[in-house]
Design a protein that fits this description.
The chain is an alpha/beta fold. It is 41% helix and 15% strand. The protein is built from 11 helices and 12 strands. It has helices at residues 2-14, 56-69, 83-92, 113-126, 135-143, 163-171, 194-204, 240-249, 265-271, 302-314, 317-347, and strands at residues 20-24, 37-42, 73-76, 96-100, 129-132, 151-153, 182-185, 215-218, 231-234, 252-255, 276-279, 294-297. Strands 9-8-7-10-11-12 form a 6-stranded parallel beta sheet, sandwiched between helices. A 4-stranded parallel beta sheet has the order 3-4-5-6, with helices on both faces.
């Protein structure tokens, strides 16, 4: 969530706003530009629906911090138990509020899934403006009664990088190579379709790529079957340097998710000039142009996923470079459109 917040803060700075982030003292400071002013009235280290979010004295400290800043507008970027209360207080104080809703449909592995749905209803009722990251979720909110001038949508476009490296990547993609393997990036969780990916890997094992693997899994997690031939699992924290190296070398990024809402990873792959393979889960397919920026396969379909991976492995580097360049052009356009929409949202 800090990656998302830091990217919004950076864009707000470029729009000429003075930006304050009110957050926990456990934040990763290197994600944020130096010009962002950080305030840390709490020291939370867990998600927003744990017991930490039910401490009234901490809510009081947070409210005093926000009130002391006298903001023109407040953008809530994360999920926290006390957000509806703060939205109501800010409305009473005459301060405009924007709230990002990340999960209208919490994935099956999400803790507090039922509570999130109820919490969403309170947020939708209390916030002046709502931001979602898929057209389908925007349309749902409009069907449920929110007016068109209060619901905004654009795809996620932040990366996993710290502020300096992210700014550099947005300026120019790094040099690319095309080793014959695809990359899965992030924590290994069941809703991300890891078992589907491993089933696809089983069929790919009969088509070796010499000394190279077929699939590299980069992220922490332990699931059965990770010792399959052709699969390398980097079970560790992936820092910026390693992450950049993996994206630079892979042939494509693969997201075989079965219960996603959306993800910033397709935009990250595009920023590196790499194609993507996504399962048609949640809003993932909204950001992929099949045959031009990547491949879309049905969710929970291991043979279709294996066929897409095999097509990527068989493609000439020049073909992949053309697809990756189309993705990069889409990324650059998205960032420009997003900046324009964010300017309108904050000015309104």
């Amino acid at each position: 969530m800090h990656q998302y917040t830091a990217d919004l803060a950076h864009q707000a700075l470029t729009l000429g706003h003075e930006v304050h982030v009110v957050t926990t003292s456990r934040l990763p400071r290197d994600r944020y530009m130096a010009q962002v002013q950080i305030h840390t009235p709490v020291a939370h280290c867990s998600t927003g629906f744990t017991g930490e979010g039910a401490r009234p004295f901490e809510l009081g400290r947070l409210w005093q911090c926000i009130k002391g800043l006298r903001p023109d507008r407040v953008h809530f970027t994360g999920v926290h138990l006390w957000n509806p209360l703060l939205l109501a207080r800010l409305r009473q104080a005459g301060c405009a509020t924007i709230h990002t809703l990340h999960d209208l449909d919490p994935h099956t592995a999400a803790p507090h899934g039922r509570l999130i749905r109820l919490w969403n209803r309170f947020v939708i009722a209390a916030a002046h403006q709502l931001l979602v990251h898929a057209e389908r979720y925007q349309q749902r909110l409009l069907r449920n009664g929110r007016s068109a001038d209060c619901v905004h949508a654009w795809p996620l476009s932040h990366t996993f990088l710290g502020a300096g490296a992210a700014a550099q990547l947005c300026t120019a993609a790094p040099n690319r190579t095309w080793e014959p393997w695809v990359l899965f990036f992030g924590r290994l969780e069941a809703y991300k379709g890891i078992n589907v990916l491993l089933a696809a890997a089983s069929s790919l094992a009969a088509c070796p790529t010499g000394p190279f693997p077929s699939i590299v899994l980069a992220g922490r997690g332990a699931l059965p079957g990770l010792s399959l031939p052709g699969v390398i699992h980097l079970d560790r924290h992936v820092d910026d340097a390693l992450g950049c190296d993996l994206f630079r070398r892979c042939r494509a990024l693969v997201l075989p998710y079965t219960g996603a809402t959306q993800s910033a990873l397709p935009a990250t792959a595009y920023a590196f000039g790499k194609p993507v393979i996504v399962a048609d889960s949640g809003a993932l397919a909204e950001v992929v142009i099949p045959g031009k920026t990547g491949w879309v396969v049905p969710p929970n379909d291991a043979p279709a996923l294996a066929a897409a991976i095999d097509a990527v492995r068989a493609a000439a580097p020049s073909t992949l470079a053309d697809i990756g360049e189309a993705g990069r052009q889409q990324f650059d356009k998205l960032r420009q459109v997003q900046a324009e929409k964010l300017a309108t949202l904050y000015a309104g």
